[in-house]
Structure to design on (301 residues):
């Protein structure tokens, strides 16, 4: 399998991203992650989707750390500073779950609050349900866990076709189109940084076709098994969706209906934010996460 590695020069002078690099090896590949804050503190695992990377959480990491928590933000294989298999066929839903399960073992993270969005939710909810002893609570923002048994929004099918067939796949502009705020040129460039050419974008292009869209999808049974765990999940579970995301808007309801841990939680809607609400309202979402952790620990201050 051909694996590409983005040159470190591409990541020089990123705006508001001063974080030290950390790496673990998974299947012979280097997986990068940010790890800030006290190593013995409660861990907030920040899972990005596509085509973003841990840079997406740059405005959430400092307030989380200032609250006395540990912020860990991995780059999925194929994204950010992590290594990138060069063919779309090198990626599958199960491989992404396996890679992140390996990451959990290598870092031995425990007492985790999962914060997940987009594909960070599809993968994050799988690893949480498969390693439930490591997770204390979950914050779900603009994401879900489809099994192929429900119809997905038209906006998703348009996105899937674009990722599969468009000869033009401008990562930074894609992020801009999925946010409400106007991204500065240097931020757009930072989202482009991991992908110096189309050869590096195989993972980003592959993701939409890996979403289960039919009941017999290769990932459907494993996702149904994860839902069985979620339907008995009595640990705190919070939804924090934005109000201006055409793909996931309304998706919180399935979790509110089925996950016992959602009962009595301070669920919120993040206003004036698009699909990438971390970019539009990062500090606000960080405050929601911090208050949720403190509240479920009995500290309402």
């Amino acid at each position: 399998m051909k694996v590409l590695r983005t040159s470190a020069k591409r990541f020089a002078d990123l705006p508001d991203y001063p974080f030290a690099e950390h790496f673990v090896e998974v299947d012979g590949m280097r997986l990068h992650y940010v790890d800030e804050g006290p190593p013995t503190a409660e861990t907030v695992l920040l899972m990005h989707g596509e085509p973003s990377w841990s840079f997406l959480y740059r405005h959430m990491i400092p307030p989380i750390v200032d609250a006395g928590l540990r912020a860990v933000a991995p780059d999925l294989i194929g994204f950010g500073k992590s290594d990138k298999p060069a063919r779309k066929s090198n990626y599958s839903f199960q491989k992404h779950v396996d890679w992140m399960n390996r990451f959990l073992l290598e870092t031995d993270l425990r007492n985790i609050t999962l914060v997940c969005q987009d594909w960070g939710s599809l993968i994050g909810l799988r690893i949480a349900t498969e390693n439930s002893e490591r997770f204390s609570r979950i914050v779900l923002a603009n994401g879900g866990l489809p099994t192929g048994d429900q119809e997905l929004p038209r906006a998703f099918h348009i996105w899937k076709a674009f990722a599969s067939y468009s000869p033009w796949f401008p990562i930074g502009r894609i992020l801009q189109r999925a946010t409400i705020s106007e991204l500065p040129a240097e931020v757009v460039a930072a989202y482009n940084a991991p992908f110096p050419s189309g050869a590096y974008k195989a993972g980003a292009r592959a993701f939409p076709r890996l979403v289960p869209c039919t009941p017999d999808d290769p990932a459907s049974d494993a996702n149904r098994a994860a839902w069985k765990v979620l339907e008995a999940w009595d640990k705190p579970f919070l939804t924090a969706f934005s109000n201006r995301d055409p793909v996931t808007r309304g998706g919180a309801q399935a979790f509110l209906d089925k996950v016992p841990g959602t009962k009595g939680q301070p669920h919120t809607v993040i206003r004036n934010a698009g699909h990438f609400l971390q970019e539009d309202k990062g500090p606000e979402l960080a405050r929601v996460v911090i208050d949720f952790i403190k509240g479920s620990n009995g500290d309402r201050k």
Q: What stands out?
A: The mean pLDDT is 96. The chain has one domain: 3-296. The CA atoms of residues 13 and 190 lie 9 Å apart. The two ends are 52 Å apart (CA to CA).
